[in-house]
Design a protein that fits this description.
The structure holds 2 protein chains of 2 kinds. By secondary structure, chain A is an alpha+beta fold. Helices cover 25% and strands 22% of the residues of chain A. Chain B has 4 helices and 11 strands, in the order ββαβββαβαβαββββ. The chains are: A alpha+beta, B alpha/beta. The interface between A and B is large, with 55 and 48 residues.
Chain lengths: 517, 236
C-alpha cells in the first residue's frame, strides 16, 4: 500500500458487491465523503464476472482459516476482517475436450476444415477474454424495482441490456417454449384453441385485482390452477414457467410471482426479463462509477489490517500505516470479522456454469433463453440461463449456460439430472451419434457453492454504526438487494433521499464560480 | 451507451444529413490534464487549478463536419484511475479513446503505454486510440521527446498529437482527427433484423434515426412514458 488516503470520511465501504456499491453510490450522491475499497483487485466480490482464465482465481478454502489473514484479535479493540463462514466453496473446473486441437483424421475436404475445427481447451483459452462468467447471474424484470431505480437515478446510462427472448420449460421429457404473452399464446402450436382461451382467461384474471381469490388462502397455487379446469400442460406452463413456483407454493405467493411476471411483459420484448450485457458483474461497477463521479474515492486490492473499535462502535480502519476514520462502516458479509457473525446459519446456492457447443433448442436466430426446470425426484427447481455471444459473455458460436438452485446436497448432485437430460458431458465416438442425440455438447464446466446470506441475521452482533451487506440470493432480480440497501441507507441517513436522479450532461455547468469573479 | 447513427428524419421522411454519436473515453495518469482537455474542447475554458469534475457521468460536445453531425459522449475517469481502480465497464462500447500523458513527466508516458496495452487487450478491437502529449506549453521542461512518442504511436497504430489544454493548441484537432479515423473504421451494416435486440434504458428523448451508414443503429421502438424511452439496436 504505497498510497496515502485522506484520513477522515463520512463512510467507509469494504467490498464492491451489489448492495455495498448501491450504498456507496447513494451516499456519495447526497454529498457524503466515501472511501470504497475491495480486498480483491477486481470489482463485484461474490457478484463479479470473470473471464475463462481469471475465474480459476476462485479456489476452495482448504485451510478453513486461510481467509482470516491474521489472528482474530490483534490488539484489544482491533478486529480482523474476513471470516471462514461465507466463502465460495466446492469449486471445480473441468474441460470436457482435448487440450490441443485434434488432427482431423476424417476430413480430406480442406475447405471445410475451418468450420469444422474442433474446440480444444487451448482454443477456448485463446478466446478467454470474450467470456464474462457470472458468479451470480441475474435477470431484471422490465418493470421491476431495479430497472425503475436504474432509470430514476440515471444510472441506466452505464449499462446496456439484452432482452430474454424465450422462456422454456421441461415437460414430459422434452423442452417446450412457454407462451407468455398474448401473441405467444396464439402463435403457439402446442396449445389447442380451447386451451388458448382458458389460458388467456386465467392470465387475465390473475392480473385483475377485482377477481375474488380469497377462497384459496390456505391452498396451493396448483390447487387454484386445477380448480380453473386447466389442462395439465397449461398448469405446467403457468405453475413452473410463468409463476416460477413448485407444487407446494402457497396460493398467495404463486399469484404474486405470476403478477410480477405479467406486469413486466410488453415493456422491452417478448418476455419480462432483461440481462445486462457483458455480464451481471457490470452492475456493481455502474454503481461504483456513479459513486466516483460524485467524489467517492476508490481503491482495489487493499488489505486492511483490521478495524478498531471504541465503546463498542467502529472507530477507524487500519490500512497500511494509516488509521482511516469514518462515522459509518459498510462491509460485505464475506469481509465481516468473525465476531459480528457468530451463530449465523450457513446456507448455500448451488451453481454450475457450462460452455456448450450449441443452444438447448437450436434456432436460426440467437436466443437468450431462460429455463425453469421443475422439481423432480426430490430435487429443487433449477433455473437455467443460456447466453449467446450477443450478450458479450462468450465467443461467437458458443453458449454459456448458468444453472442456479437452492443447494440440497452439492452442486454436482443437485444438477446431475438436468445436465444428463439436456446436455452431452462426453462426446460420442462418431459424429452420427452426436447428431442423433441433438443435445448441446459440454466443452467446459464449473461447479461451485455460493453462500446465501439473504435471510441471515446480519444485525444482532453488529455495532450500531456498522452494516453488513448480504451476498447474492436465489431471486432472479435484485429486489432483495435494493430493499437491503434502502434499509441500511435509511438507518444511516434517515432524512436523505436514496439515489435521487443524477443530472444529465447538459445540466452540468462548469466553471460557474469563475464567472462570478 | 451505443452509437446512434443515422440520418435525421423529418416527418415527411426526407433526410437532413447524418448524425453520429460516439463514446470516447479518456485515460491516463492523474494530473496529466485529462479533464482540462475535455473542458477546453467542450467549453473552451481552462482553469489552472482544475478540480475533479463532480457529478458528470460524461460530457457531450457536438461537432459538425460537412453534412455529418458528430456528437461526442466524453467519459472522464472520475478519479478511479488514481488508485488503479478503473472499472472495465468504463471502456465498454467505446469507439474511441484518448490516452493522455504529460510531456514534462516520463512516468506518465510509461503509464500511457500501459493504458494502450489494456485497451488493446480489453476494449473493442476496432477502437480508435489517440495518444495526446499534453502540456505542450511547457515544452521547455520537456522530458518525453516528440520523436519517441511518435515512433511508439506509429508502431502501435495510434493517432498522435501534442496538445496544450492551456493554450488550446491542437485540442480541437485531436478530436477531429478521431472523427476522420472513425469514419474509416466503421462498417456498413447489412439487413439483419432477426438478431437479438439490444436495449439502452435512456431517460431522455432520442431522435428518430434511420438508414444508418455506420456500424450500429439505435432507434426508439416504443415510448412508455415521458421519462423512459427504450431504444433498440437491431444491428448487434
Amino acid at each position: 500500500m504505497d498510497y496515502t488516503f485522506p484520513e477522515k470520511f463520512d463512510l467507509i465501504v469494504v467490498g464492491t458487491g451489489v448492495v455495498e456499491s448501491m450504498l456507496s453510490a447513494a451516499a456519495s450522491r447526497v454529498g457524503k465523503t466515501v472511501l470504497h475499497i475491495d480486498t480483491n483487485d477486481y470489482y463485484g466480490g461474490q457478484w463479479a464476472s470473470f473471464n475463462l482464465e481469471t475465474i480459476t482465481k476462485l479456489k476452495n478454502d482448504d485451510n478453513s482459516s486461510s481467509n482470516v489473514r491474521n489472528p482474530l484479535v490483534l490488539e484489544e479493540n482491533t478486529y480482523c476482517l474476513g471470516n471462514n463462514v461465507f466463502n465460495v466453496e466446492n469449486v471445480q473446473f473441468k474441460y470436457h475436450i482435448p487440450n490441443i486441437p485434434k488432427k482431423s483424421d476424417v476430413s480430406e475436404d480442406t475447405s471445410n476444415m475451418e468450420l469444422d475445427e474442433k474446440w480444444s481447451s487451448e482454443r477456448l483459452l485463446k478466446e478467454s477474454r470474450k467470456f464474462n462468467i457470472d458468479l451470480a447471474p441475474k435477470l431484471q424484470f422490465g418493470r421491476g424495482d431495479f430497472v425503475g431505480l436504474l432509470i430514476s437515478s440515471n444510472i441506466s446510462r452505464y449499462a446496456e441490456y439484452r432482452c430474454v427472448s424465450r422462456i422454456i420449460t421441461w415437460l414430459n421429457g422434452k423442452l417446450h417454449v412457454v407462451p407468455c404473452s398474448r401473441a405467444d399464446v396464439f402463435s403457439n402450436t402446442n396449445v389447442t384453441v380451447i386451451e388458448k382461451r382458458m389460458l388467456m382467461k386465467v392470465l387475465t384474471s390473475l392480473n385483475d385485482p377485482e377477481e375474488d381469490m380469497k377462497n384459496y388462502e390456505n391452498q396451493t397455487f396448483k390447487d387454484f390452477l386445477i380448480d380453473k379446469k386447466l389442462s395439465p400442460n397449461l398448469i405446467h406452463f403457468i405453475l413452473y414457467g410463468i409463476s416460477m413456483s413448485s407444487d407446494e407454493t402457497p396460493f398467495s405467493e404463486g399469484v404474486g410471482n405470476a403478477k410480477r411476471f405479467l406486469n413486466s411483459l410488453g415493456r422491452f420484448g417478448k418476455t419480462p426479463f432483461l440481462y445486462s450485457m457483458y455480464g451481471s458483474g457490470e452492475l456493481p461497477q455502474a454503481f461504483c462509477r456513479l459513486s466516483a463521479v460524485f467524489g467517492g474515492v476508490f481503491a482495489l486490492g487493499q488489505t486492511p489490517q483490521g478495524i478498531i473499535m471504541h465503546d463498542n462502535k467502529f472507530k477507524s480502519l487500519k490500512l497500511g500505516s494509516q488509521h482511516l476514520e469514518a462515522d459509518h462502516l459498510i462491509m460485505s458479509v464475506d469481509n465481516s470479522p468473525q465476531q459480528f457473525i457468530t451463530g449465523v446459519e450457513k446456507k448455500y446456492i448451488s451453481r454450475a456454469v457450462l460452455i456448450t457447443s450449441s443452444s438447448m433448442i437450436e434456432s436460426e436466430k440467437e436466443h437468450l433463453t431462460l429455463l425453469f426446470y421443475p422439481p423432480e425426484n426430490g430435487k429443487n427447481t433449477v433455473t437455467l440461463i443460456e447466453l449467446g455471444s450477443l450478450t458479450g459473455t462468450c465467443p461467437k458460436g458458443l453458449f454459456l449456460v448458468h444453472l442456479i438452485s437452492r443447494q440440497n446436497i452439492s452442486p454436482e448432485e443437485d444438477f446431475k439430472h438436468v445436465v444428463e437430460n439436456l446436455f452431452l458431458s462426453e462426446p460420442f465416438e462418431t459424429p452420427e451419434e452426436n447428431e442423433t442425440a441433438r443435445k448441446p455438447e459440454i466443452l467446459w464446466s464449473a461447479y461451485f457453492s455460493l453462500p446465501d446470506t439473504s435471510e441471515s441475521d446480519l444485525k444482532s452482533n453488529v455495532p450500531d454504526n456498522v452494516f453488513l451487506c448480504p451476498g447474492p440470493d436465489l431471486d432472479l432480480d435484485y429486489d432483495g438487494s435494493i430493499k437491503m440497501a434502502r434499509d441500511i441507507f435509511k438507518r444511516m441517513y434517515d432524512d436523505l433521499e436514496f439515489l435521487p436522479r443524477a443530472p444529465d450532461p447538459e445540466e452540468i455547468i462548469l466553471g460557474e464560480d469563475e464567472e462570478g469573479e | 451507451m451505443s452509437t446512434r447513427t443515422g440520418a435525421a428524419q423529418r416527418p415527411n421522411g426526407s433526410t437532413q444529413g447524418k448524425i453520429c454519436q460516439f463514446k470516447l473515453v479518456l485515460l491516463g495518469e492523474s494530473a496529466v490534464g485529462k479533464s482540462s482537455l475535455v473542458l477546453r474542447f467542450v467549453k473552451g475554458q481552462f482553469h489552472e487549478y482544475q478540480e475533479s469534475t463532480i457529478g458528470a457521468a460524461f460530457l457531450t460536445q457536438t461537432v459538425c463536419l460537412d453534412d455529418t453531425t458528430v456528437k461526442f459522449e466524453i467519459w472522464d475517469t472520475a478519479g478511479q484511475e488514481r488508485y488503479h481502480s478503473l472499472a472495465p465497464m468504463y471502456y465498454r462500447g467505446a469507439q474511441a479513446a484518448i490516452v493522455v500523458y504529460d510531456i514534462t513527466n516520463q512516468d506518465t508516458f510509461g503509464r500511457a503505454k500501459t493504458w494502450v496495452k489494456e485497451l488493446q487487450r480489453q476494449a473493442s478491437p476496432t477502437i480508435v486510440i489517440a495518444l495526446a502529449g499534453n502540456k505542450q506549453d511547457l515544452a521547455n521542461k520537456r522530458m518525453v521527446e516528440y520523436e519517441e512518442a511518435q515512433t511508439y504511436a506509429d508502431e502501435n497504430g495510434l493517432l498522435f498529437i501534442e496538445t496544450s489544454a492551456k493554450t488550446a493548441m491542437n485540442v480541437n484537432d485531436i478530436f477531429l482527427a478521431i472523427v476522420d479515423e472513425l469514419d474509416e473504421n466503421v462498417e456498413v451494416p447489412g439487413p439483419n433484423s432477426n438478431k437479438l435486440s439490444k436495449f439502452s434504458l435512456l431517460n431522455k428523448t432520442v431522435g428518430v434515426l434511420s438508414k444508418a451508414l455506420f456500424a450500429k443503429i439505435v432507434f426508439p421502438i416504443s415510448i412508455n412514458r415521458k421519462d423512459s424511452i427504450i431504444s433498440c439496436d437491431p444491428s448487434l
